[in-house]
Structures are given as structure tokens and as C-alpha cells.
Amino acid sequence: MLDIRFIRDNIDLIRDNLTRRRDDEKMKQFDHLLMLDEKVRALKKDIQELRTQRNRLSREIGELKKSGKDDSEIVKRVNGVNEKIKTTESETNEIEQELKRIQMSIPNILHESVPYGADEENNEVVKEWGGRPEFDFDFKSHVDLLETLDVGDIPRAARLAGSRFYYLKNELVLLDIAMQQMALEMLLKQEYSPIYPPFMMRREVYEGVTDLADFENVMYKIEGEDLYLIATSEHPMAGMYMGEIFEPTDLPLKLAGVSTCFRKEAGSHGKDTKGIFRVHQFNKVEQFVFSLPEESWKIHEELIKNEEDFVQALKLPYRVVNVCTGDIGIVAAKKLDLEFWFPGQQKYREGGSCSNCTAYQATRLNIKYRVKKGGTEKAYLHTLNSTMMANPRTMVAIIENYQKENGSVEIPKALQKYLPSGMKEIVPRKK
Asked: Which CATH superfamily is domain 4-105 in?
């Protein structure tokens, strides 16, 4: 969220930011926030004046007692002041809770390079890489390939758990593990520390890392517990250092999260219902960095390059898009999506994303750094995250782009060293 002092000092900037984001409702909420903030400050001033009055009256009581005079009237006045303080503090706390709720909904300040637009149709293509395959045969979608190669079973998974679940089988299981190993190895060479996080988080911590709307649309709640299944390892890695202070020499801190992720996909009813393109459960290797503010934009470029290096090693055609103001969400200041080319859909679709959240998450989670080593001045650091590898989408891109006329699928050479010796292709098992 935006720090309240930043809000007070940058009212026009925030209004301009909300205008860029095309969010009239948030503009109304922001106006209400400013009104609540003024009210809280006025009430706190009243409380301070009441405490000053109480202290003065208490001194008068002491003087009356020393002289043996009656202090009952002054005591009554002190009791009255105490009651006013109690009532005013209670009112202040209620307003502060409402203010905090609205404050957490005000979106991050966008980077100047974020393109203006209403939705994903207005995202700006900044790079394309790799040639799209030109098949001279009737190519198949991954839905058909899962069956003919016998590497997945969706009907049985649906009977077990419902829609958007799946069994991976045979070579696809090995391919998933191989991609995780390859992605992690590439990050380890760049001094990332591997992290295997808890797969559940308490709401208090989760509120520090994501849009509150995600609690209804994205996350699964554990019934009867204050726990939510993680939607990405970004979230537990962000919360890992909640309330802590870094020395500047400790930054940047680079983490590589490996986890299974869980998403409700509540807003995706009717979308991508076939196959394993959009699912409730998937595996991912995630980059996460705690950074000094002055270094975060350079690191943002490094993160997307890492993801591109991984995809280029697999020789998959892709493009990078700069996500527009109407599609970016509230947490990131800038977000780049890497989109694979999917022959089965004849379009580019998201395979991963790379975001600089600046101080937004750190403010919510109260994660700071000392401006000077050992000094007393502290400031909020920046957090960044980026997909390195996410399955099953990367696997879908591989089996669709690497399919051959005889129905088999070639395995990218970069992955073969992570697979059993001699495993270079997946051959059909079913007609």
C-alpha cells in the first residue's frame, strides 16, 4: 500500500495515477480516505489536548491534597476528561480501521512507461523472439496430444476433484521435474537462494502481498482455519521477512521459490475449459528480490531477461508485452508478461509475468532497510517478482510447438540432460 505520509504529500500525483488507471470508483474511495485522514488527525489533536487538560487537573489535585483542601470537584472533572478520552480514542480507532481498509485498496503508482489502455487488448508488444512453427500437416492441440501420447488424464481427474484438475503421466511428469531443475540451476548460477516455502499463509500476512479481491477470486481458504493455499511462491517469499529491517549491504536479496500453486480461477468461468491450459493446481519456479529502491528498475530488467533466457534455451517462440494501465492490477508499478505462441490456439497467451512492486508490498508488510549501515534512518525497500518457469503452460507450449507429423513430440535439447538417458522424444501410445 501507499504510506499515509506519501499520500498526504502527493495528492495530485495519486489522482493522476487513478486517472491513468481509469478507475472512477477508486477515485471516490481516495476522496473518502482524505476526509477520514483529516478527521483522524483532528481527533488525535483533541485527544492530545484532553490529555494535557487531564495532566493539569491532576497537578491541581496534588496541590489541593498537600494543602488539605477538598479535591472532589477536580476529581469529577478528571473522570469526565478520562471518559472523553476513552470515547474519542474508540471513535478514532474505528475510523483508522476504515481508513486502513481504503488505504490498502489504493493502487500503486504506475511507472511512466506503462501504456494507457482499458484491457489486455491495449497491452504493448515490446519484443518478439523465435519463429512460429509452420506445419505442413494437420497439427494437433495439446488436448488431443495428451490423449494420443498418453501423458495426461483429465476425465479421471475430473471424477476425482472436478474441473480444471488433471493427472500428468509418463514423460510429462519427467518433463515437469526436468524444467524445474533446469530453471533452478540457471538461477543458482546467478546466486539466487532456493526456497521451498509453506503452501499455506495466514490472512494477516496474505493481506500484505496481494489485492484483497483475490481472497474471493483466487485463493482457496482452509475451512475452519485462518489459512489460505498459496497462489504463487511470490507470496510466502514476500512475507518471509515481514516486520524486519535489512542493512543496505544485505541487498539485493535474491530468492528462487519452488512450489505448487493453487488458484480458484473464479473469474474465468467458461474460459479455457479444455486441456491443462488453465488449471487450479500447478508447479512453478519463481524469482523474488528484495532491493534497494535505486536498484529496482535495473533488477526488473534482469528478472525478465532470466525468464527470456530460460525460454530461449527451450527455443520456444514468445513475445514480451508491457501490461497497460487497465490490466495491470493494483500491486505492481510495472508488469511485463511473457507470452508463448500456442499453435493450438493460433495466438500468444501468457506464460509468465515480471513485476516491480516498488515499496507497495514492503509498506504493507513493514519491511525496511537502513539508509546507512548501522544508522537510525530507515525506509521501505522495493520488492520484485518474476516467473522463471510455470507448468503446465510451458509443457503445453512445448508439446504443441515441437509436435511432428508422425504424432510424436521432440523434447528440447536443453532439457534432455535432465531426463533419463536417451529420452529425446515422446511417442504416441494411443490411436
From this structure: Serine-tRNA synthetase, tRNA binding domain (1.10.287.40)
CA distance linking residue 289 with residue 60, whole number of Å: 58
In the structure grid, which three cell numbers stand for residue 42, read together? Answer: 483532528
Is residue 369 within 8 A of residue 245, CB to CB? The reply is: yes
Q: Compute the distance between CA of residue 133 and CA of residue 380 in angstroms, rounded to an integer.
A: 46
Query: Would you kindly state where each structural domain of the chain is located, as residue ranges?
Result: 4-105, 120-426
Which residues 6+ apart lie within 8 Å of 225 measured at CB?
A: none
As to burial, measured by CB atoms within 10 angstroms (0-12 exposed, 13-18 middle, 19+ buried), residue 421 is exposed
Q: How confident is the model at residue 332 (pLDDT cuts 50, 70, 90)?
A: very high
What is the pLDDT, as a whole number, of residue 215?
Answer: 79
Q: How far apart are CA 141 and CA 105, in angstroms?
A: 40
Phi, psi of 340 (to 5 degrees): -80, 155
Q: What is the DSSP string of 202-213?
A: -HHHHTTTS-TT
CATH of the domain spanning 120-426: 3.30.930.10
Cα angle 247-250-255, degrees, rounded to a multiple of 5: 135
Q: Span 256-283, mean pLDDT?
A: 87
Q: For all residues of the chain together, what is the average pLDDT?
A: 95
CA dist 322 and 316 (Å) reads 20
Residue 420 confidence (pLDDT) above 70: yes
Q: Which residues of 48-60 are buried (b: 16+ CB within 10 A; e: fewer)?
A: eebeeebeebeee
Length of the chain: 431
DSSP state of 295: G
> Is the model more confident about 364 or about 74?
364
CB 400 within 8 A of CB 141: yes
Q: How far apart are CA 385 and CA 255, in angstroms?
A: 9
CB 2 within 8 A of CB 360: yes
Query: Among 351, 284, 343, 296, which residue's Cα sits nearest to residue 321?
Result: 351
For residue 36, pLDDT beyond 80: yes
Query: Are the beta carbons of 299 and 190 closer than 8 angstroms?
Result: no
Determine contact, residues 304/320, Cβ cutoff 8 Å: yes
Q: Distance (Å, rounded) from C-alpha 411 to C-alpha 342?
A: 16
Rounded to whole angstroms, the Cα distance separating 124 from 110 reads 15
